[in-house]
């Protein structure tokens, strides 16, 4: 990925609102303490100095909020970069894991009974999950007094010729108060936290649901999967590659979880929504009309090979695709 020269300091990232939505590629680990973002709306790559983010470890969320942790005091807060609003959270007792992601739960409606047994869920939670080991950090957003660290058992990941390793969630989505993740092939895991728990404690439930596949004559198909919330439903976007080189995309499909049938149902019409897929399994949905995007499309930008600025746009209904390069500005 190429980097542009950082722009002048911004009073707030809200000054860049014309470029929203943004996919964050770098959170300030560069020597100049800047942030590199991709603008999905205009196909540009920009590097900013954002004073509000200096000296903080920052994790973006699909909800548009940013978890900020002071690198010295470990004091935490949630920040809305578009409004400038900041919500204080308890300080952490140690630094965030080197590789992790963050989610904020939405408990505005009832989750499926199979996962929660009809029990009332608590106010919203913020969750940090380690991408390299099965460990979670949880905190109540309102009234939280401390971060709770919790491990979980997702089984073992086995590679021929190597010692088995513990499975860790690589992709999660928060839907109606429940955190969903890929637990194992054909198995969806769901973490629930109930209102009567004195401290946040996630209970693990599982759901057997066959993984989406495609019909192809290719000798090998590799699937890259993303989970996300859209209109209070759980979606899965699968990008099917020919071979292990991740250079040729054979097909892209969007699937909605039908909890009654316990299966992924392929969909081609997601209305006005657009799906945004970024690095480290980041996935979110947004209004296409509000942000000047193509409705019913999947925007995919992931530089996991480390040598391109490519992005792809897949129209789910028409089955068409576009691709280009982010322009450095």
From TrEMBL:
Q: Which Pfam families match?
A: Beta-prop_KIB1-4
Every KIB1-4 beta-propeller domain range:
38-315
What is the protein name for this chain? KIB1-4 beta-propeller domain-containing protein
Say which domain of life the source belongs to: Eukaryota
TM region(s), chain numbering: none
User: What SUPFAM superfamilies is this protein classified in?
Assistant: Galactose oxidase, central domain
The record's PANTHER family line, in alphabetical order, gives: OS05G0143700 PROTEIN, TRANSMEMBRANE PROTEIN
Q: Which InterPro entries match?
A: Gal_Oxase/kelch_b-propeller (IPR011043), KIB1-4_b-propeller (IPR005174)
Source organism per entry reads Dichanthelium oligosanthes
């Amino acid at each position: 990925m190429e980097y542009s020269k950082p722009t002048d300091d911004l009073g707030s990232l809200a000054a860049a609102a014309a470029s929203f939505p943004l996919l964050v590629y770098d959170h300030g680990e560069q020597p100049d303490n800047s942030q590199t973002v991709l603008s999905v709306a205009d196909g540009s790559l920009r590097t900013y100095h954002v004073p509000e983010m200096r000296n903080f470890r920052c994790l973006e969320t699909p909800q548009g909020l940013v978890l900020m942790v002071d690198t010295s005091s470990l004091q935490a807060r949630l920040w809305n970069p578009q409004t400038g609003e900041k919500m204080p959270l308890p300080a952490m007792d140690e630094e965030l894991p080197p590789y992790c992601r963050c989610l904020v739960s939405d408990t505005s409606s009832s989750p499926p009974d199979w996962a929660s047994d009809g029990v009332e869920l608590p106010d919203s939670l913020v969750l940090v999950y380690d991408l390299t080991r099965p460990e979670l950090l949880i905190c109540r957003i309102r009234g939280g007094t401390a971060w709770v660290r919790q491990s979980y058992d997702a089984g073992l990941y086995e590679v021929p010729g190597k010692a088995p390793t513990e499975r860790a969630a690589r992709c999660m989505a928060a839907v109606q108060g429940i955190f969903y993740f890929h637990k194992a092939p054909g198995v969806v895991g769901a973490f629930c936290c109930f209102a009567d728990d004195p401290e946040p404690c996630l209970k693990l439930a599982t759901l057997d649901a066959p993984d989406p596949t495609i019909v192809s004559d290719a000798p090998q198909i590799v699937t890259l999967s993303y989970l996300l919330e859209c209109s209070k439903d759980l979606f899965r976007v699968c990008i099917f590659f020919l071979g292990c080189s991740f250079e040729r995309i054979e097909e892209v499909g969007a699937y909605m979880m039908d909890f009654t049938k316990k299966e992924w149902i392929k969909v081609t019409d997601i209305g006005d929504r657009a799906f945004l897929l970024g690095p480290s399994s980041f996935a979110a949905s947004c209004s296409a009309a509000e942000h000047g995007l193509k409705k019913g499309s999947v925007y995919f930008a992931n530089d996991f090979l480390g040598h391109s600025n490519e992005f792809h746009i897949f129209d789910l209904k028409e089955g068409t695709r576009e691709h280009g390069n982010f322009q450095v500005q």
